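Students often ask what a 'structure token' actually looks like in practice. Rather than answer in the abstract, let us consider MALR1 protein, a protein of 600 residues. Its sequence is given first.
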Amino acid sequence: MFILKNSSSISQVARLRSPKFSQSGSSCTLSFWYYNYGQSVGAAEMQLFVDGLKQPTVLWRAYYNEGNQWLNAVIQLGRLPHPFQLSLDKISLGFYDGVSAIDDITFENCALPPPALSCEGPNHFWCKHTKACIDSLLICDLVDNCGDGSDEENCNPDLQCNFENGLCNWEQDVEDDFDWIRIQGPTPTVNTGPLKDHTTGTARGHYLYMESSEPHQFQDKAVLLSPLFSPSGNRTCIFRFHYHMFGRQVYKLSVFQRTVSNAKGWLLWYKFGNQGNRWIRQTLYISSSRPFQILVKGTIGDGFTGDIGLDDMSFLGCTLYNGNLPTISTTTSETSVPATLPTNNCTEEEFVCRASGHCIHIDQKCDFRPDCSDKSDELDCVTEVCDFEDKNQCGWYQPTLEQMSGNYSIHTTNIFKWELGRGANLYPGQEKYCPLIDHTMGTEEGWYLFTDSSNGEFGHTADIATPVISLTGPKCKIIFWNYMNGSTLGSLEVLCKTSNKTSKLWTQSGSQGPQWNRAEVFLGIRSNFQVVFRAKRGVSYMGDVAVDDITFEDCSPLLIPGRPCTSEEFTCANKYCIPKDNLCDFVNDCADSSDESPAI
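Now compare that with the structural description of the same chain:
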């Protein structure tokens, strides 16, 4: 069926009507192929007319020229208990030039479930009038799966909410960034969000949605809180809900469970990205030995086509809790017990070896050479080799986080920062711009250090630094492996920071491909300095910076030998001995440049 016409009459509508259908089952879908091509071809939409409702419901829209191709459309009809009819309208405002066509219209799974001769077992429910046998998980889920409503009879209204009359006993979280909105019909932004609710399948029904347009920003969160539930005991509490995640910039929907009132809880389920213009059912099985609460959190993506919808949320086998969840203290102790030092006669310019009480000069602390017998002078320092396995950060720390409040979980959750990660913990799709395997082990279980760019904003930086290094030798260099892949990746810098100056030693920006790359940075002789890795966030979350296997090579300072230099060695002005092969090689091997003197 097609329209082919050149005309200039104002506001034309070509309408194609379906037969009238008496009802449809809960899994009913309509699919068809359409063609909408031409310079001024105009828009098209599918409308639903239900007996008893004055206003039609828009089920599908095509906006203007969609190219010289056939495209498939799938529309969720769901359970419609009253007679209905569909209308495909082709709209032309003013001049019409193009071809519009439709073909292969198919209705699938639209009949009511067939009657069964028997329906035995605890996992089945026998419908009262239609005699259909359905899964017991479909009982009291706000959907008429039987076709006679019997699976929705005798249900506890406190355990279900279809949002037709408000939020029921769910609440908006006051600690989040904005609220879920109750709405009818389509969301205000085109090409994102639902066109209708899930309960009624029409524009008359209500649902909740998360508005992704301004003033809301990337990573803003809207959290919905369930009522409180009693411990599940030997039974399993089942949570059913329907979600809608349609739009190019849809980001994340997640569900958490908590047993204390001032914690985010632990993750039960999550979904990322565009899932198509449809309502999707999700079932979660929850067990808890303590009273608990469910949190449903929507997170804003990188633009305004990221609306998320919720509808028909219900619990089965759960009992409401008449009380309050406990709170836990989130403050950390400001006091720490100092290590007991052995008896010693060390001055302020000296370091006390922890085991012996022996005194060494303070410059010998953190110089990559253990001068104490127990190596305590290198204990609170950066290690020579760090592979981050066993979640060990090897002395590297984040200065900005250290300066923040001790309440880490609240204040730094959404900050662009360095953190430990591994491929096994990535969410679906994140491996496109974050390493799936580490460099050390080459497995998904291996750990590395990375900056999660789904936090923060464009231009934000994250620093991770060594403690102060007192002295290094003339050949000292850092070797590390970096992973920089993603379309919006920012940059990575290696800095040298002293008390009054910060200098850039190495920098790399933009995507470097989906592999680990080796980098080498020469340090040479330096004193009382820190090495800093600085990551800068790009314009969006598609580009994390990762590092692994950081090695300080040949960094211990020179030693003055307790002997004269041999005939194979050169005696530096400062009494160090170096191989004669190192003379006049443009490297300051002596640390005083005497090996590079023109007088040699």
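One point worth highlighting: The first strand starts at residue 2 and ends at 4. Ask yourself how you might have guessed this from the sequence alone, and why that guess would often be unreliable.
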